[in-house]
Amino acid sequence: MFRSQVIGTLLHRPLSRGQLRAALRELSQQSFRPPGAQVTRRYSVPTLERWYYRWRKGGLSALVPQPRAACGAAQALEESVRQLLLDVRREHPSASVRLIVRTLVESGRLREGAVSESTVRRLLASAGLDRVSLRRSPGATQRLRWEASHPGALWHGDVCHGLALPDGRPLRIHALMDDKSRYVVALEARCSERESDMLSLFVATLRRWGRPDSLYLDNGSTYSGKALATACARLGTALVHARPYDPEARGKMERFWRTLREGLLDHLDRGLSLEQVQRRLDTFLTRHYHCTPHSSLFGDTPALVWSSRQTLLVSEEQLRQALTVRERRLVSRDGVVHLDGQLFEVRQGFLAGRRLYVCHNLVEGLPTEAWVEHDGHRYPSNRWTGASTAPSAASLTLPRPSRRARPSSPPPPTPPLTAPQEPFMSEPSLSLFGLTQSPFTKEVADADLWLPPSKQELVDELVDSLQQRHNVLLVGEPGVGKTCVLRALRQRLPTERFRLTYCHNATLGRRDFYRQLCLALGLSPKATAAAVFFAVTGHVQELASSRLHPVFLLDEAHLLHSDVLAHLHILLNYEWDSRALLSLVLVGLPELEDRLSLGTHKSLLSRLHSRLRLEPVTPDDSADYLRHRLRLAGCDRELFPREAVSLLHESCQGAHRDLDRLASLCLRQASRRKRKLVDSDIVREVLERQHSPALA
Question: How would you label 632-668 residue by residue, b for 16+ Cβ within 10 Å and e otherwise?
Fold first, then answer.
């Protein structure tokens, strides 16, 4: 068709031989654009003349281009060499043309320069052995588009390699992506790609989003460890691995990496630290990727589709059980076991030199506690610090002096025992960080207390229970904020309806306990136990007649004597047990639940209507808590990067009391180094000093 258009002006004109020659010469000076070409070209007079006479003889069909008979046959090569090239491609379909030619030249089967790579490609294409044809052959893998049934049904996991960090460490970006919604549930920048990195990322994601039905990973060592497989099996998550050397099987994850590279990674400044890279990753997800319409989602955004999920929550106890690993290890003759580069000491001497099963938990990454199983018994194992434990003064047996013997000189005075003081920050240190006061002290007003959403809900439950005049049991590990919850409760309860009495000395006997209550209530303590008890109950009845509901907050209740616990239910009995004139709030460690479950305290346990447990805070809660305390002290900028907060949270295990102490020490250390940011190196240095034998 194109050729007929070029010579179309000459086809129906009656031209003599001389006129035809002149018309063809004039036409050869014009430029034409062939179909599919990007540039124009001219055609010579003989070519135009040949097209003209072909059309006169055979019409339009005579102008169809005729392929060369030997096209793609590599005529410069012998038949044996051509057959060899075809056989090599059949045996090695993934080998490139350049590799095939180079191998044959090096082996002497093909003379160097005898044939070009383009000629070999045409030869293979003519025989149907090019890569595209092989990929479409009947024996090739057939790939069909598939998708999970609902958000949360399947997560993809992979690692992307980035440029090296300024300190020389590699950059590895770990990601978990939901298949149905393409929502990235986790994206973290790290410096390694070990199984421990995957476990840490997986645990943090489970705590935030719950568990998926399936996990789809590749076959790298990061994803093929025993700990991950065991954890998925215990959580009810199917672990699926893609076929080795088949990247097309994980096309959705590869497509996300392409989007991330084109939108962020290829444009990052090489001088960024790991924390700065993480902040940019978080910004990319929240401001760009999750809110951008996706073609495979029919124009919906990943965030919109992900919001329709049904969350399968995972409790901390389920996580602990899922990540408890049981391995066979040799206990050395000096009673030490090696676990993931750490040493644990076994104090049972009869276990030394034996190969036993050692169990440890990986919820927080590296094992922090371990125990040894032997003959149906569990023996705890403590982390070895490099120095033997010195005997305590109570364990030493000293000779008793004779009554008749008098010391020649008075013994030296015993130094008083003093509690460790809270870290104090000097004025230069405060000014370095823009602080007006020490941020992590106890002197915080009730109105300025920070509580995460989980504790706010717990305070709401406490208020609801007391408004219904119920009794409450509140337990939690040391330092997780039980007293802070009580202070928030004091702020919430109206004083015109409730009268709160707080008691924290729980180590007294029954009579002294009630005497303490009398003093707290403003009563004069009586001499006998019965008189003290009736004084307290009489005061409760007086408050009830004044339309005030008394609430006794008994802190450290796990230390209460058994006779006090056995008598508390009598304190709640008024008017034949027909009126609830008093509410008790028992606050203590989790072993308080075990004590109350005994038969002797069944009467008290049955009167505890609400039984609440205070769980440790999450890493995100710790980060918000640090920002809140710094903001109260006058600093609005970020002093603790993400990795530093993670290290502090892991060391404190969610206890804010320890977090206050370590954060203050980190600020002091950063002040000594004249740094305006408490990075991970500062935190590690402080933690190493805290765990060193000299400071233990």
Answer: bbebeebbbbbbbbbbbbbbbbbbbebbbbbbbbbbb
pLDDT digits (tens, 9 = 90+) for 9-22: 777 777 777 788 88
Q: CA-CA-CA-CA torsion for 65, 69, 74, 76, nearest 10 degrees?
A: -110
Beta bridge partners of 372: 358, 379
CA distances from 132 to 91, 121, 135, 246 (A): 16, 12, 5, 16
Residues in contact with 612: Cβ distance below 8 Å, sequence separation at least 6, in sequence order: 458, 461, 462, 472, 473, 474, 475
| Rounded-to-integer distance, Cα 475 and Cα 590, Å | 5
The answer for residues whose C-beta is within 8 angstroms of residue 291's C-beta and 6 or more apart is 301, 303
Residue 340 has pLDDT above 80, yes or no: no
Number of Cβ within 10 Å of residue 293's Cβ equals 11
| Predicted confidence (pLDDT) at residue 418 exceeds the cutoff of 50 | no
Predicted TM-score (pTM) of the model is 0.42
Q: Which two tokens stand for residue 395?
A: 């364990």
Instruction: Look over the chain and give the mean of its residue pLDDT values, rounded to a whole number.
Output: 82
Q: Round the CA-based radius of gyration of the chain to a whole number and report it.
A: 40
* Strand-strand pairing, 355-361 and 498-503: unpaired
The 3 state secondary structure assigned to 99-142 is: HHHHHHHHCCCCCCCCCCHHHHHHHHHHCCCCHHHHHCCCCCCC
Q: Which residues contact 339 (CB under 8 A, 6 or more apart)?
A: 327, 329, 358, 360, 367, 370
Q: Are 148 and 182 in contact (CB under 8 A)?
A: no
* 156, pLDDT greater than 90: yes
Both structure tokens of 56 = 């006169």
Find all residues with CB under 8 Å of 181, minimum gap 6, and list them.
151, 297, 302, 305, 306, 309
The pLDDT assigned to 67 comes to 61
In DSSP notation, 251-287 reads HHHHHHHHHHHHHTGGG--TT--HHHHHHHHHHHIII
**Cα separation of 10 and 28, whole Å?**
13
Q: Which of 184, 177, 180 is nearest to 149 (CA)?
A: 180
Tell me 292's DSSP state. Answer: S
In order of 185, 200, 311, 625, 656, the CA distances from 203 in angstroms are: 12, 5, 15, 21, 21
Q: Are 351 and 329 in contact (CB under 8 A)?
A: no
Contact indicator for 648, 662 with CB cutoff of 8 Å: yes
* Residue 298: both structure tokens together: 């029919």
- The beta-strand segments (E) located in 445-545 are 471-476, 498-503
Extract the runs of DSSP E, i.e. beta strands, from 514-572: 549-554
Largest CA distance in the chain: 155
Where is 159: in which H helix or E strand?
strand 154-162
Amino acid at 478: P
Burial class (CB in 10 A: 0-12, 13-18, 19+), 418: exposed
